[in-house]
C-alpha cells in the first residue's frame, strides 16, 4: 500500500497559482503594449475610443429595444424604448461625428480617471500591509493628476488628450498589475 506524501495535495494549488499569475502577467503586458500604442498614436487612439463607445451605445440601444418586447408590461416597454432611442442617438452621434464626440468623451474620461484614481487610493489604505501597496497608491495619484490635466486643458487638447492620457493610464495600470503579480508570486513562493 502506497503512502501519500503530505506535500502531494499542495501541487494542485501551486499549479493553479502559476497559471493564474501567468494570465495576470499576460494581461499586464497587454495593458503596457496598449498604453504604448496609445501614447505613440494619440489621435488614432482617441478616434478608436470614440468609435468603440459609439458601437457600444448602438449595441446597448438594440438590447434595450429587444428588452422592450419581452412582455413585462406597457409602462416598462415604453421606458425601454425611450432608453433604446437615447442609446441609439448617442451611438449614432459618436459614429457620425467622431471628432465632436471626442470633446464630450474627454470630459467623461477625466471624470472616470479621477474616480478610478480615488478608488486606487482607497485601495492603498485597505491593502497597506501588502508589499505592493505603494504601487497602488502611485497608480491612484497618477490617475488623479491625469484626470485633472484633462479637465484643465479641455477643450483645446481633446484631440490628443484621450489618446495620450488613456495611454499613460493603461501603461501605469499594466505596471501596477505587473508589480502586484510579482509580489503575489514572491509571497506564494515564501509560504
What does this entry show, briefly?
The protein is mostly helical and 191 residues long.
Describe how the helices and strands are arranged.
Layout: H1 11-40, H2 42-68, H3 74-96, H4 98-126, H5 133-152, H6 158-190
Question: What features would you highlight for this structure?
Answer:
single chain; 191 residues; mainly alpha; 6 helices; 85% helix; 0% strand
Molecular shape: globular
Q: Mean of residue pLDDT?
A: 82
Report the structural category.
mainly alpha
Q: Major sheet: size, sense and barrel closure?
A: none
List unreliable stretches of 5+ residues.
Answer: none
Number of helices: 6
- Write down the Rg: 22 Å
> What is the H-and-E element order?
HHHHHH
Instruction: Quickly count the domains.
Output: 1
Number of E-type strands: 0
Distance between the termini: 31 Å
Helix content: over 70%
- Fraction in beta strands: under 5%
If you had to describe this structure to a student in words, what would you say it looks like?
The model has no long low-confidence stretch (mean pLDDT 82). This protein has one domain. The chain contains six helices and no strands. The longest helix has 33 residues, at 158-190. With 191 residues, the chain is mostly helical.
Amino acid at each position: 500500500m502506497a503512502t501519500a506524501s503530505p506535500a502531494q495535495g499542495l501541487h494542485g494549488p501551486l499549479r493553479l497559482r502559476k497559471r493564474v499569475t501567468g494570465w495576470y502577467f499576460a494581461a499586464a503586458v497587454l495593458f503596457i503594449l496598449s498604453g504604448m500604442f496609445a501614447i505613440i498614436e494619440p489621435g488614432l487612439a482617441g478616434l478608436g475610443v470614440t468609435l468603440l463607445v459609439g458601437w457600444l451605445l448602438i449595441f446597448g440601444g438594440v438590447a434595450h429595444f429587444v428588452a422592450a418586447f419581452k412582455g413585462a408590461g406597457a409602462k416598462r416597454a415604453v421606458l425601454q424604448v425611450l432608453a433604446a432611442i437615447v442609446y441609439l442617438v448617442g451611438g449614432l452621434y459618436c459614429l457620425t461625428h467622431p471628432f465632436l464626440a471626442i470633446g464630450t468623451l474627454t470630459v467623461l474620461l477625466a471624470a472616470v480617471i479621477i474616480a478610478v484614481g480615488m478608488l486606487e487610493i482607497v485601495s492603498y489604505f485597505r491593502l497597506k500591509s501588502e508589499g505592493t501597496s505603494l504601487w497602488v497608491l502611485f497608480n491612484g495619484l497618477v490617475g488623479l493628476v491625469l484626470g485633472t490635466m484633462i479637465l484643465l486643458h479641455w477643450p483645446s487638447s481633446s484631440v490628443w488628450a484621450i489618446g495620450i492620457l488613456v495611454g499613460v493610464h493603461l501603461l501605469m495600470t499594466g505596471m501596477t498589475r505587473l508589480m502586484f503579480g510579482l509580489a503575489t508570486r514572491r509571497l506564494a513562493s515564501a509560504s
